[in-house]
User: What shape does this take?
Amino acid sequence: MPVARDLRILLRLRNFRRLLAVRLLSQSADGVYQVALAAHVVFSPEKQASAGAIASAMAVLLLPYSLIGPFAGVLLDRWPRRQVFLYGNLLRATLACCTALLILGSVPDWLFYASALCVTAVNRFVLAGLSAALPRVVDADRLVMANSLSPTAGTLAATAGGGLAFVVRLVADESDAAVVLLGALLYLLSAVASLSLPRGLLGPDPDGSPLRLRAALAVTARGLVAGLRHLAERKDAARALAAMTVLRFCYGALTVMVLMLCRYAWSDNEADGLALLGLAVGISGAGFFVAAVITPWAVGRVGRYGWMVVCAGTAAVLEPALGLSFALVPTLIAAFVLGVVTQGSKIATDTVVQTGADDSFRGRVFSLYDVLFNVAFVGAAAMSALLLPPNGKSVTVVAGVAVLYAAVAVAMFRWRRTSAES
Assistant: This one.
């Protein structure tokens, strides 16, 4: 089987395995940390979270990435990427320990959010760096497969980390602080794993004098403009990013809806609601795994744009068919389908961007990619806050998301006819 053969070849590449280990440990820690945040903010017995409160929390944690993202890109194109993984994960481990202390101290919510923001802000550097570094450890012929395995394995690691967090929370008498400390340990292990990679292997290629702190603001502004111009000159990459941004918006809106359904419609208490959310996340993660297996084959048959057409079109049909009942089992099936669709589209988009952007610009482009992702997700949460009733059942949200999926499918079908891969 070609997929299995390419997978075996990838795993024989020593530096690919090492970079993958850094990703798996880092993103498993992300999964642990995210479950701790969800449990503390949404599913604590003393809190009665509304869609508006959830949207506010997402805005606090995600919107600042719109400012951090451009800085991350400029610095990633100048700093040794291995050092970003090392010091970034060490910093996150330290900050996560601070978050655990704040939970134990029952501090005001704003202080907790500030600590959580610091942890997740560093994540922008690490994730963008992992994507930008991938072409340095894999040849171009197997980049699609690498994009299938690596980010999807990271997502599955985050899902597994979330599952581990549920277990630790149960064993530790529902202690969110204990869960956060587990995340800190995993961040520390990711930092140690990064030391197995040669310092200069992951780039970036030297393209000038080192960045000086006093010139950081000017360099960042120029770098952002240059990154945007570089992206504008590569229409395939720009179109794929635009489509993926809309798909991310759809996924964000449905995520908030499912969270509210778990909290208020499908359970009578916070513990059962959190368990149902974990089940939904796990099933969606299974969809990510399936996408990793079938996407290289599908891209080989219909092309990257064609695969995105299939993904968006499938979601446009099945999302309302399964979601309008607002019943548990059909919604969980929809979570699996959307896991396949979302991750399959992301793999294709990652490859378009990686092959379309020069190495010296990849950090900036992937940082812009992250900005679009987070703004889209926060925008979806804000829309859901306006439209979702307290129990999470909204025909308007389900129907509106289906229309957006259909629009992406139509646009990608038209763009495919003029793309470079046609």
In short: The chain has 14 helices and no strands. Residues 257 and 389 are 9 Å apart (CA to CA). The chain has one domain: 7-204+213-416.
